Amino acid sequence: MYMADALEGDAAAINQAGSLRMQAYRLALTATQGDDERLTERLQRLDDTLTSPALLLTVRRHPNSPLPERYATIVSHWAYTMRPQLADQPRDLARYLSELDAFTQELDGFVRSLQEASERKLGVIRVLQVGTLFIIVLIAFLLINRLHNNLATPLRALTAMARQIGRGNFSSRVEVAGDTELSLLARTLNQMSQELAELYAEMEQKVSDKTAELQRSNTSLQLLFNGAQMLYSQPQDPGQMMGQLLSKVQEALGSGPVSLCLNRPGEAGSHTAISSLDMLPPYYCDLPQCAACPAQANQGLLANGNRLISFAMRSGASELGTLRVEHPADQALQPWQEQLMLTLADLFAASLSLAGQGEQQARMALMEERAVIARELHDSLAQALSAQKLQLARLKRLAARGADSETLSATAGEIEQGLNAAYRQLRELLTTFRIKVNAPGLKPALHATVEEFSSNSGLDIHFSYQLDHCPLTPNEEIHCLQVVREALSNVLKHARASQCWLSLYQDRKGMIHVQIEDNGIGIGDSVSPSGHYGLTILRERAEGLHGEVSIDPREAGGTRVWLRFAPDYRRIPLRQESV
């Protein structure tokens, strides 16, 4: 800026100095023309130009150059030699013209010196510009290098670290020296990466633990499901099925051998012991000496250092057996292992209990069936044979007394008639006891019965069944079938009917209605004649269903047998809660 300021006015000074030559020649021309007024004016103008501020300032700005001396020479030459030739009278134009070339040369030397001084300043300015440009480039290089080292490189490292974090790699770290914003950001990212790594490791561990737990739960549930399916597919012999499950239980637990001991309720000791290794009693078992079992003494410790952990199988107050697992004595079963063993013990106990109940029910059903057969034989065939036995004793007494042949023949006829009636009752009982419901449900059995009676008698039977939605028990189905067969048998034997209507339906209150109607001769009363038990059997069947049966004349002629009862699924016992 100083050098540029030093050049200020040099161009104007050069112009002014150049104009002095033109003005000097113009004065000579004006003097030749003889125009004094214009000559005076132009003399003053040259004086003003020669002492102009631009020339004076330029001369003072270059004190160490030839400019001050040359300017002083020009001023002296003009003031003392040339100006007086034109300003004084008389004018000496010839001398003026003779001095004009020397004056012009002095002006040219002054202009040349002024130009050289300006060029020197321009050279200095050029050197300064080059040096300044070099300094600027150097500063820019240093700045860029510093920015690269302190900004671009850390930012690139931070960006790479951010990408690694985005990919799930938390092992990379960035170190930025100093106490700048980037170093703070680097420390923050390092801390965040470390915390994320710890968090991910913890989450992966939790996921791994949860996956293992879910796999164990899935294995346990699969084992329980397969066990329940296997046990309930063959409920008659659950002990064998349980033994087959023990190896899978051991595999699911990941523990030592699993064993099973089965008891009989109310009896001391076990009757069956099975191990998961070979389906044989465990090596420590000495049946039937159950009192010496390690599970009963020394807290279940075995000679090999393991401990027997027992899980009782109970059904109510009955002890059905024990499920045991051999486990290291210094370790406890994990909660899921203990829960699995408890659940299996309950499942085995339920299976054994159901098997026992099934056996008891079969036993009771057999006893009940025998009681029914005995009652039927006693109420029908036994009484009829007993009566014929009395008739035979009477025949013997009459023969011993010598009764006439007519009396003996009448008594023999009564005995024969009674035997025939007893034989019919026997056939009816055999038919009744052979009734089976082979197809699922009552409807197929009734269809078969209708076809049987229609084909054998020619009776036109109209059948209406509206109980497809009603689940009847096997006992209810058997009683309904027997009532229908007994009623149809009575229609064939006594009604002399051509048509019969059989309908089964349920009313809105849930009562089951079984109606058998015919267009026969009707019935006088509902009391069975002597030696006939059909109506009595119908009433007994109705009582067995906790219902009632009515035998009434039909309005359009004939007889109607009407059975009404509430099915078991509608007889829900309601128990009032005690306060």
UniProtKB/TrEMBL annotation:
Domain HAMP positions: 149-201
SUPFAM superfamilies: ATPase domain of HSP90 chaperone/DNA topoisomerase II/histidine kinase, HAMP domain-like
UniProt KW Magnesium keyword: no
Coiled-coil residues: 182-213
The UniProt record lists the keyword ATP-binding: yes
Principal cellular location given in the protein's record: membrane
PROSITE patterns, per database record: HAMP (PS50885), HIS_KIN (PS50109)
MF (Gene Ontology): ATP binding; phosphorelay sensor kinase activity; protein dimerization activity
Protein name as it appears in the record: Sensor protein
